[in-house]
Amino acid sequence: MNARFFLLGSLSAALVAFALTSPRVIAADKVDPVADAKAFQNFFFQKFPTVKHEDFVNGPYSMNEDMKRQWQEKEEFPPYEFALDAGKEMFATPFRNGKTYADCFPNGGIGIRQNYPYFDTGEGKVVTLELALNRCREANGEAPYSYVKDEMASLTAYMAFTSRGKPMDIKIPDDPRALAAYENGKRYFYTRRGQMNFSCASCHVQSPGERIRAEILAPALGILNAMPIYRSEWSGMGTTSRRFVTCNSQTRAVPLEPQADEYRDVEYFLSYVANGLPISGPGARP
Amino acid sequence: MKLSLPLAMLLALSLAPAARAANEADYKAAYAAAEAASREAAGMRNQWTVTVSALAAAKKAADGGDFDRAVAAAKEAEALAKASIFQATSEKEAWKAMEIR
C-alpha cells in the first residue's frame, strides 16, 4: 500500500517537475490587436518606468538625458525646417489640372496624419500616407515622387506637422484581410533577416537605449510617430519607406521595394500598437 | 632505416594529386549552383546583400579570367544563399518566440 502511494507520489512529482521545466509553450495563434497593443505598450512602460509615456515618440532622446538636452536646443532651429516650408508650399500649389492635394484627403489633408496608415476595405490592402500622396498625384495626371526622400519627405513633414500632438488613431476594421495585414506586419517586425540575423525587434525591442556603435537605439513604441525625420547621418530628410529600407540594408538584407506589402503591413502594425501616443513629426535624429 | 620516413614522405607527395587550377567549366557549374540558391532566397523575400556581392565578385573574376577566384566567390555565394534560405525557413515559426505578449 505504502509502495503504491510512494509510486503515485513520485509520478506526480515527476509530472510537476516536467511541467515546470518544459519550454514555454507558445500561445495559440489568435490575432488580437487590442491585447497586442496593450502588451506592447506595457512592455516599454515597465522597461523604462521613468520615461513619460508621451515621450517615447521622441526616440533616442527619451532614452538619454544628454542627447535630449542637445535635441531640445536644436529644436529652436530644427534641421527639418526647410523641408517643412517646402512641403507647405507644395501642398498648396495646384496641379496642372487646378486641383490640389487637399482635394484627395479628408479635412483637406490637414490634421489627419494620425489616421495613417489605414486599411482600405475596397482594395483589401493597407494604404500609407506616402502611397496616398502618390496616388493623389497620379490621379491628377502628375508623376509620382520617390518614396524615400526629397519631395515626399517634405509633403509628409508638412502633413505630420499639422497633426502634431494628436494621438495616433489607427483602426483595424472588422475584416479578416485587415487582421491578416496586421498579423503580416507583426510577423515582419519580429522576423530575423539579413546576414546579421537581426529582426526589427532585435534593436528596437531588446535593446532600446543601448548603443550600436555611436548611435543610441530608439524604442519601437512610437517610432513612426516622428516620421518623416531629418537624419544627420543622411544629411537630409527621410520617409518611413527610407527608414525601413536602410534598416534592412544595415542587417545585410536586400531591402524590398518601397511600399511593398510587407512594409505597408509593418507600418500598420507599428502604428496601431502606438495608438494613443502623440504625433511628433517631423523629427530630427542623429 | 633512418631514411625510410623521408623517403616515404617523398613518395607520398609525389603520388598525391596536384591541385588543379579551376577552369571556365568549373566556374560555370559553381555559378549556376549559386545563382539557383540565390533565386530561391529571393523568392522567399530573404535575399542577403552579401550573396549579391559574392555573385558579382564571381562574375567579375571570371570576366578577368581568374577562375580560381571566381569559383571560390561562387561557392561563397551559394553558401550564403543557402544560409539565408535556412533563416527564412526557420523564422516561419521562430519569430513567435520574440513576440511581446
Automatic annotation (TrEMBL), chain A:
Binding site for heme c 1: 104, 136
Positions of heme c 2 binding: 200, 203-204, 247
PROSITE patterns, per the entry: CYTC
Pfam family, one: SoxA-TsdA_cyt-c
One GO biological process term: sulfur oxidation
Protein location: Periplasm
Keywords: Electron transport, Heme, Iron, Metal-binding, Periplasm, Signal, Transferase, Transport
Organism this protein belongs to: Bradyrhizobium barranii subsp. apii
Cofactor requirement: heme
This protein's name: SoxAX cytochrome complex subunit A
